[in-house]
Write a structure and sequence with these properties.
Number of helices: 3
Radius of gyration: 14 Å
Helix content: 10-25%
Largest sheet: 5 strands, mixed
Number of strands: 8
Order of helices and strands: EEEEEHEHEHE
Distance between the termini: 39 Å
Strand content: 25-35%
Structural class: alpha/beta
Length: 122
Amino acid sequence: MQINWHRDASPFAVNGIDGVRVRVGEAWQERSFWVHQGALEPWRPGSLDELGEDDLDALLARGQEVILLGTGARLAFPRAALRAHVLQRGIGLECMSNDAAARTYNVLLGEGRAVLAAFLIG
């Protein structure tokens, strides 16, 4: 089966990642941020240790059906209480490395899904 990948034409698609930063559209992001199909905003936490409920509430307020959490160069998980904070609201929270979050975000964005990706860059 042949699979062809077509870069999403959205200005909010992830176009590059180099292990330290993430490129959305034509701009490299060098600090933590979140992005969805209509916005890109800086985000306070630089690491999982700094992540709190208020940071997650900022993401939950966007009304997306799933949140992808890019945890840096390697997969890591926030504290169980923080994961529960999101899940209690009926929103999916998927944790993955930044490169995996970028790929997954682009696929879901291309499908027209209500997805938000938050990238921790410290």
